[in-house]
UniProtKB/TrEMBL annotation:
GO terms for molecular function: ATP binding; ATP hydrolysis activity. Residues 286-405 form the ATPase AAA-type core domain. It holds the Pfam family AAA_21. GO terms for biological process: DNA synthesis involved in DNA repair; double-strand break repair; SOS response. It comes from Amycolatopsis coloradensis. This is Chromosome segregation protein SMC. Gene3D superfamilies: P-loop containing nucleotide triphosphate hydrolases. The lineage of its organism: Bacteria, Bacillati, Actinomycetota, Actinomycetes, Pseudonocardiales. Keywords: DNA damage, SOS response.
Amino acid sequence: MLTRLEVQGFKNLLDVRVDFGPFTCIAGANGIGKSNVFDVIDFLSHLASGTLMEAAQQIRGPADGRSGDPRDLFWDGYGDHEREIHIAVEMIVPATVEDDLGSPAPATTTFLRYELGLGYTRPDGEASVGRLALLSEKLVHINRGEAAEHLKFNHSVKKFRNAVVLGRRSGGPYLSTGAHESGLVINVHGDGGSSGRPQPRAAARAGRTVLSTITTNDHPTILAARREMQSWRRLALEPSALRTPDGFTDPRSLGSDGRHLAAALFRIAQDNVSSGVAPDADAVYARVAGRLADLGDLGVESLSVEPDQVREVLTLFLEERGGLRLPARALSEGTLRFLALCVLLEDPTVTGLICMEEPENGIHPANLEAMLDLVRDLAVDPEEPPDADNPFRQVIINTHSPGVVQLCSREDILVADNRLQTAPDGTTTRALSLLPLARTWRAREATVTATDADLVVYATAPPGVQIKLPMDLVG
């Protein structure tokens, strides 16, 4: 779970510091740059697996393409000045993960803060765009006694916090940055605390974060942080991917674009039967069909995934109340998106952070409430302990839809706005700010908050849907 994000110098995130809960809605106008919040989270996830330049190539360029030019990642990246990006995250990581060899790696502590500094090295020849450089890296623990200061969203201390914030460490950091006669080094410290000599890694020649190089259970807490960041996904459901048939040998987990929908649901049904959670696969399909029936304009009778032994493919079928039987490829875009989220809801193996852009896309306004209820249900309930029935998932969405904003709790809303900030050169410029609403949990320590007047633009209900406004906006 990503509980806090601090960013300086990444795209239009000149200086953003924000706390997250289990569910967050970022509301802002189109083109304001709120997707860059997802970009920096995506960037961190890719950095946990690949090189600095590979991660950069995975991030959207200025025209929604992937340019691979590292300067696109920096604030005013093409200006004639030094460029730096500083990112810090606070996160709750899994108590035990598997290393690359399949061995268990129990973390010493599960509440961590990771800090990263990146710079830009100019090209040393023609036909080059330069490269990213590792400037600093740090990973430190947050003990249970300090957790109350950092976990600011409303939650149960006994059932939730004490179940996810585990372990204690009396020593120093797990990763630290230091100076060496040969240059800057990133020190890797053991889980045993202050005992043992740190292992220095030369930052200048790294080409990747040191955290991304930890693959075995020799450093289990660093590995747990890496696994947590690797689990952060940006869900961008594409109709063509959702309609693609699955072969028997295809992966059986839902892809970030919605691919392998039938295979994922088939696997979930089989796992539920083998573990005794459901008496048969039909019971799982019935649960998904029941949730899908929340779409008021869709008369769902049943749902199933059928294996074709001859063609060796899995096909998802929906049967309507009138008897019409439809394969997934014949379903509407909105139905497929909703169905994909229903499948995710049934999958306890999907944990970590899910970022979703404009979940209302393809959904009739009258079905917005059903969609938002489903998205919120994907997130962990912080009043209960995480378990198979309450998977440790977190959801962040962004939207410019009045209907979505009106259906969200004020506690969950962040208002995205371009506000005046001071640039590194001392000039004043406009950059993205994420502001909590006044009198919400994020506002307790915020220096600037949004007011209900900032939500007036969202106060007009879309055609065809009756939406209740928060009492603060009525009148």
